[in-house]
Structures are given as structure tokens and as C-alpha cells.
Amino acid sequence: MALTRQSLATIAAGLAVLLALPYTGVADFYLSYLYLVFFWVALATSWGILSGYAGYWSFGHAAFFGAGMYTAATLAGKLELPFLLTVPAAAAVAAALATAIGLVVFRINSLRGEFFALLTLSVSYVLAALISNTAIDGGAGVYLSNVALPQFGASVPGAIYLLGLALAVAALAISRRVLGSRLGAGLLAIHDDEDVAEVKGVPTLRYKLLAFAISSAIAGAAGAIQAAYVGYVTVGETFSITVPLYVVLMSILGGARHWAGPAVGAALITVALSAVVGSGHAELGRAGVALALIVVILKLPQGIVPALLKRLRRAAPAVDAAHASGKLVNLVPPANAPGAAAPGARVLLECRDVRKSFGGIQALRGVSLQVRQGEILALVGPNGSGKSTLINMISGHFALSGGTITLDNVAIAGLAPHAIAQRGIARTYQIPRLFDHLSVLENVRLCATFGCREAASGASPDALARQWLAFTGLAAKADLLPPALNLHERKFVEFARALAARPRLLLLDEVLCGLTPTEVDQAVALIQKIRAGGTTIVFVEHLMRAVVALADRVAVLDQGTLLAVGPPRETMQDPTVIRVYLGASHAA
Ligand SMILES: Nc1ncnc2c1ncn2[C@@H]1O[C@H](COP(=O)(O)OP(=O)(O)OP(=O)(O)O)[C@@H](O)[C@H]1O
């Protein structure tokens, strides 16, 4: 959301006051106090960029902060480099460390969730052991008392205050920029369902690495400034559990999925803790702060900032519906546009001898199939015959055990799912897999943002998303979260997401399953409308009346082999097909 002129003016005025503070003769004690607030704001904000947005909770933030601290301590304290140069160097070292770790860890699917948290925590301990047992520290710590600190800010605490302020502002600006960008949209989707995000075109590995590197670079820079602040760097203090614990708590309190949330949490906790420490009853005070934290987190599980924003939005006057729908682009195909593909239409998708085995199970035993531009091909077969496996192989979810798959004569097998999505293949899921923390509109907008590159229409992702929501009859649900929808609506959001990706080929996996007869009719009409717009469709379906109503051709799978392919009525009357479906007695 763009900042209004008024809020920009308020921010500028606030910043001007903060910048002027060291020159007003204010006591160094207050500057140091405020520096600590900035320090925690920068650290917590940096943590949020990976862990808050993408949900990869890192308990190893101390490692990157520590890498920055020791880079500064070594370069300035031992090699006598000007201190200011050590700050970008510390950021670079921390980012390089995160990238190296991420390149290994992010490729391993099993290292998500709590395993990632534990692994990052152990990185801190490994790094601590390495540093304390080498000349970097040697166990004695590194003094920076002889390091010449910058002269600006009227005093050394003033200079450190200004550095802390600059870093906190930069961290907030970067975090806000990330959240509003493609990267941020991708990270939020990764948070909710990483596999689906990848299939929708989000380059998940690259985005996680980028977020990890940015987050760690800020932590590294914070470490460098903190080295100057403390003047004596030790492994015990640097790599303690305090840093990760505090940044996690601060982010949860303020709201980890909002750019300003961790900063608000950091400011509140830092101020609360310093108030109780100065009160003379430090231990009792800390317990009180912890109790208050528990209460606030229980009451506001999304964090203070999102809760406040929600309240403000509720209080704001409702936006005019026509205005909210934005400028519509005419994407809705005409009702009577041509239907079936011309018989001689070119081949869009070709599967040649596609094989897939899961351990000892042969799910696909060499399936060869062509899909022509503009046609609707139904994929049918008994349970376990390999239909979903074929869809998963085309969309890149599974690697092939053998054979080739081409889209417009270009091999796509072996490409990452996001690359396949960007080439124009979109899919839906049998059980809708929506991003539950993103609104219906945001779900669809994400797919418009990351969809087929070649079919970019020039319309904004937001306009496209609203257009496809209107097409699927969901315009009124745009601002709801997916858990508030019924199954029918959730399935239609799946449609809208797939369509917003501007697919050349749409893969529908049992979209009618679980719908009432009326909802089935609506879905069938919708699929007909989609094809009328020129989209080629492959759909997996058990409901024969829908297959007959929709399909130009039917492909029948049985035990991983293609049994028959042809027009629906003829194919379903083929004795071999009847035997597979109804048993030998019906096939005579
Ligand atoms: N991830 C997996 N790991 C192991 N086996 C799998 C996996 N996915 C599918 N299979 C096996 O592959 C075979 C084909 O399954 P698939 O889900 O493709 O069938 P289907 O035709 O889509 O069935 P349904 O109509 O019930 O959805 C089955 O034997 C199934 O157990």
C-alpha cells in the first residue's frame, strides 16, 4: 500500500527529529538507550524477512549477527581497517554464510518447519566453536577499544546511535519493499504451501535464498555496529540464545507477517525490559513482562500490528463495490465462441513413453498421449490407474522415471515446477490447496503475477485477478480468507487461480468431486466457458455425464497403461474399457 503524503510527511518529520537528537546536547545515556531500541528493531525486522514472511523460522539469527560482529572485530580490531568499511563487509560475510547454508538446506524438503529451526540453531553453535577455537577469537575475546570510531554525531555514542538509526530505517524500508514486491508475494505463498507456490510459478528456492541472504546481511550489519557499541566481543555473549529468542518473541508480539510488526514488538519489549531492570526488582519485572507477553500473544495471535490494522479497516467506510472491482479488462470469452479444437490442430502437449515408479509400484508403464491445441481431453480410469500421477508429472511435481514430455515441441520434463508454470501449464487440485492466510483476491493475484510469461497481457495482476474472480462468480468474496469459503467456492478459487496464470494448457484434477448436482452443472458451464476462450484442457474425472458433456476425446488409463483414446461415447463403449470399469460379465 502506497504511503499517503500525510504519512510521508509525518515519517520525514519524525526522522528529522531523531537525526537531530545527537546534536542537541542530550545525554549519551539516552542515545545509548535509543541505540539499543534501533538495534533490536533492525534485528527483529531482518528476522521477519525470511522467517516471518516465508515461515522458515530461524533460531540461528545469532550466527549471522555473530558473523557480522566478528567480521567487524577482525577487520577493525586486528587488521585496523576503517570501522565504517567493516559494516558492509560484515553484511556481505553474513549474507554469504546464509547463502551457503541455504543452498544445501533449502533443497531438502524434509528440512522445513522445526527441523529448519533446529538446524539453524546448531549453525550458531558450530560457528561459535569454530571462532573460539581459532585465531579469530582464540577464547579470549576481541577488544575494539583501540578502534577509531566515526566522528559524526558529536560523540562516539552519538555516532553509534546514528548508525543504529540508519540501519533500523534501512531494515524497515527493505522489509516493506520486499513485502510489496513479487519476492514478498512469493514468500507469503511459500509460508502457506511451498509445493503449491512452486507449481503456481514461484521460484521457491531462489526466493528463499534471496530472503535468507537479505535477512542475514542486515543481521550481519547489526553485528558490526554492536561490536563497536560493546567494545569487547566474546563468543559467549555473541552466540547466546538471547538473540534468536528475543527476535522471535518480538516478531510474534508485533506481527511477523507485517513489515512493521517485528519493529513494534522490538520497541515494546526493549522499552519494557529496560523499565523493569531500572526498577530495582529486575527478576520480578522480567516475569511480569513475560506474563504480559503471553497474554497479548494469546489475545492477538496474529500480532499487534495486524490486529490494529484490522480494527482500523473495520472502522473505515466501506469501499464502493464498483470502484473496488477496478478497471476490468475484457478477458471473458464470448458465450458462443467456437468450441472443439479443429481436427488438424497442432499438438500442444505430447507425452512419449512416460513412466513413473514409486519404489516397487509402477504407477505409469509407458504412456504416450497427444493433446491438441484447443481441445478438452478427459483422463479417466479406475482408482489407482495413474491419472493424478500423469497430471503431477506434466506439472513437474514428480520427476519422470522414463520417457519425455514436450509442450509445443519443447521438452519440459526435468524443469522445476515453477518453470513449467511460467511456460503456460496451470493446474488445480482435487482437494483445493489455497493459501489460507492470503485473501481470495491475493490467492488469484499471486497466480496472475507468476503465471505464463509468454502470455503476459499488459494488464496488472490485480486487474487480472479481479477479472477472473468476476468470471468465476467470486467477486463478492475477494476479501475473504479461504477458510471462510465452502467447497464449491474453494474449487472455483482454484479455477480463478489457474486462469489468472494465463495458461496455454489447463490441468483439472477431479474438480467436480464433492460438488452437488447443481454445482456440477455450474462447474461444467464454467469449463465450457474457459475452453470457449481458447484454453486447452486436460481433466481427470470420474463423473461420466460431465466427461460426455465436456470432452472432445477421452483417454482411458488402467494400471498405468493407456487402454484407449478417442471420442467419448465410442471409447466408453469399447469392450476393453467396459471390462475395466464394470468387470468381464458386462463386456460381452
Ligand atoms: N507419492 C506416491 N508415493 C507412492 N505411491 C504413489 C504415489 N502417488 C501415487 N502412487 C501410487 O501410484 C498409483 C497410481 O496412483 P494415482 O493417484 O495416480 O491414481 P489415480 O488414477 O489418480 O487414482 P484416483 O482416481 O483414486 O485418484 C497408485 O498405486 C498409487 O498408490
Short description:
This protein has 588 residues and is of the alpha/beta class. The chain has helices spanning 5-20, 28-54, 61-78, 83-105, 114-132, 156-179, 182-192, 194-199, 204-230, 235-238, 242-254, 261-277, 282-299, 304-315, 321-324, 387-394, 417-422, 440-450, 461-471, 487-500, 517-532, 544-550, 568-573, 575-582; strands spanning 142-143, 232-233, 347-358, 361-372, 376-380, 402-407, 410-411, 425-427, 505-509, 536-540, 553-558, 561-566. It has 24 helices and 12 strands.
Q: Domains counted in the coordinates: how many?
A: 2
Number of DSSP helical runs: 24
Small-molecule binders: adenosine-5'-triphosphate
What is the radius of gyration computed over CA atoms, rounded to a whole number of angstroms? Answer: 29 Å
Q: Give the structural class.
A: alpha/beta
Helix content: 55-70%
Number of separate strands: 12
What form results from the Cα inertia axes?
A: elongated
CATH architectural type of the largest domain:
Orthogonal Bundle
Keywords: ATP-binding, Cell membrane, Membrane, Nucleotide-binding, Transmembrane, Transmembrane helix, Transport
Transmembrane segments: 32-50, 57-77, 83-106, 115-136, 156-174, 209-232, 263-282, 288-309
Subcellular location: Cell membrane
InterPro entries: AAA+_ATPase, ABC_AA/LPS_Transport, ABC_transp_permease, ABC_transporter-like_ATP-bd, LivM-like, P-loop_NTPase
